[in-house]
Amino acid sequence: MKKLWANYCQYMGLLIATAVMVAVSGWAIDQIPDSHLISDLPAPQTTENMAMNDQVVAAYTGFAFRLFSRVYQHQNQENIFISPASITNALAMTYNGAAGTTKEAIAQTLQVQDISLAELNQANLALNQSISALDEDVQINIANSLWLHQSAFFLPDFLDRINQFYQAKLTAVDFSSPDTPSQINDWVKQETNGKITQIVETIPNQTILYLINAIYFKGMWSEPFDKELTQEQPFTLIDGSTKLHPLMFQFGNYLYLENSDFQGISLPYADDARFSLYVFLPRENVSLDRFYTQLNATQWEEWIKQMRSRPGSIQLPRFQLEYEVGLNDSLKSMGMDIAFDPNQADFSNLTPDNNVRISEVKHKTFVEVNEEGTEAAAVTSVTVFTESTPSIPEPFSMVVNRPFFLAIRDNQTRTILFMGSIVDPGL
Description:
The chain has two domains: 2-218 and 320-386, Antithrombin, subunit I, domain 2 (Antithrombin, Chain I, domain 2, 2-Layer Sandwich), CATH 3.30.497; 227-318, Alpha-1-antitrypsin, domain 1, CATH 2.30.39. Helix content is 32%, strand content 31%. It has ten helices and 14 strands. It has helices at residues 2-22, 47-74, 84-95, 100-110, 117-130, 156-166, 180-191, 288-294, 297-306, 328-336, and strands at 31-32, 138-149, 169-173, 207-220, 231-236, 242-258, 262-269, 275-282, 308-317, 319-326, 356-369, 373-386, 404-410, 415-422.
């Protein structure tokens, strides 16, 4: 039964990611802004902007399937459930801080090397915003946050871009405090509606920054499954053995595709069917490995186009799954190894510190599929290290007990409004 279950879980992950994507200094920081849920209505899209969004979606879809292939190579006997949309959000924020060959490597990995940074940021904002105004049967929350070492220096331009285009919550914290992991994890719990409760355990001494994305999805089927029709049935596992598992049943008209290798179906959420669950089931004589040799972004798009409405029945496992994976090795194998290299990584667009690198990319997900619909959540964290201890300036003492100069300045226009010399404050 594990074979079918694993196949289903894997495609559930690809569904949500693809649906989301297609629909879709010492600067003094305290906490800006407190509201970081993407909820603004999207600005009107020009033809040029829509074409750019399509180009970014195509790039991210290619990245999604290549990443999935890398993860599957190491976990082909296990359930897999990833959110490429969460991962690309986190990596795109990180990309904003990269420079030189490190920036080129991340661009190649994300397949956005032909897209300018400004265009990519604008497209990400538009894609995230476009999925926010949904009906009551589909809820989606995309949230980003940066957790910054309070004694490290970050370039204002980098922080401005992340705040503007990724609407990230920016918080300066004391990474040496035992309360900081709980503070970060509380944010994760809140943004995933309690489905993922922890992304940070302990904070290594070299950490200067966490870039974190959280996604929460809850969709009700356009036609719910009847609970009375759910029955325990044999499910064949990947080793050929069987176990009893509840399978839901439904009959109706669905977008459907079949050939000698598989059957594929689209199960829509809500009345407008903007989001759907796609399930691809290899034939009994076709192994999962063989099916995945065909699976890539080009073939995926072709299969979706070939689907046609047909009457039929579907029996689908009811299940709940929690999943966690470290993405360092997969991303390195896709061309991002320089970003992890302490001797070569270049994040000079993030901080003047020239000893900065990515130390870890961690990904956690949750999914539950039942008769009512689907609930899913994902969190991706990018941990940034410095090889040198962040410098903490010595406290100073300033006693104004003698004549002094002062000025009042408009810092936006740089206009000096008042200026003077005080030689006797008692007069």
